[in-house]
């Protein structure tokens, strides 16, 4: 069991959790993730480790409620516990002294971009941040990103926060102004990551994206997270989750992510109609003592 130390909504349907997991906290690196299961009969879902505190023995995850399991998770509070948290999984972000790096986060993807921005800054890079959201209420981690970047640009679709426009609008503007950019990292919705790759491809700026395919076991055995990169099959859980954006087949990624959409929507609708069964199972994991981590 893994005890929840803190649970707080930071945007509508987006909740930040600090979870007791000391061994994961000690070993995790930027870009890695965990797979968790809320209760014994629950679904396994991957979530990026947004931060960790080795002294407290906790990891931080940020969860957007989009389906049954994430909506269930977002109903838990401090003092509740999660059945299983496995990690750290996946390859760490490539961190070295590149020069000037643009780190782009779209929506809840900012939670994934943030730890890599921190690591890139610690490695001595000039880090330019671009974060985007549809509207001001959906913008997350602005303060944290501002604290770790040399300059931060905030974009919103409706202009209610920062500048009105897309993250690619700002990236293209920086390129047009002649700003030296040695590397780009983009994390967010598939169309956004593809658009960033299209912008940076023309100048051959090395660009990485963190992919989010369907994932079950995190070991490469299930094959659910298969992606096509450079014309070859790769597994996001063990070969990624970060890949060369200019080599990713985003259309195949989009198609594979849509395979179970109807079933996911049906399961979430059933849960919303009567969440008591799953909630009772989840709250049965409530702890009064420290978890094992």
Uncertain spans, ≥5 residues at pLDDT below 50? 288-293
Main beta-sheet strand count, sense and barrel state: 7 strands, mixed
Helical percentage: 25-40%
> Would you report the number of β strands?
17
CATH class of the domain at 93-205: Alpha Beta
- CATH structural fold name of the domain at 93-205: Rossmann fold
Shape: globular
Specify the CATH homologous superfamily of the domain at 93-205: Nucleotide-binding domain of ferredoxin-NADP reductase (FNR) module
Count the DSSP helices: 10
Give the CATH architecture of the domain at 93-205. 3-Layer(aba) Sandwich
Strand order of the largest sheet: 12-11-10-9-13-14-17
Q: How much beta, percentage-wise?
A: 25-35%
Structural class: alpha/beta
> In angstroms, what is the radius of gyration?
19 Å
Note the run of SSEs as H and E: EEHEEEEHEEEHEHEEHEHEEEHEHHH
Mean pLDDT: 89
Straight-line distance between termini: 7 Å
Explained architecture:
With 293 residues, this protein is of the alpha/beta class. Among the domains are: 2-90, Translation factors (Elongation Factor Tu (Ef-tu), domain 3), CATH 2.40.30.10; 93-205, Nucleotide-binding domain of ferredoxin-NADP reductase (FNR) module (Rossmann fold, 3-Layer(aba) Sandwich), CATH 3.40.50.80. The protein is built from ten helices and 17 strands. It has a seven-stranded mixed β-sheet with strand order 12-11-10-9-13-14-17, with helices on both faces. Strands 5-6-2-1-7 form a five-stranded antiparallel β-sheet. Strand 1 (2-11) and strand 2 (14-20) form a beta hairpin. It starts with a strand and ends in a 10-residue tail after the last helix. Residues 288-293 have low confidence and may be disordered.
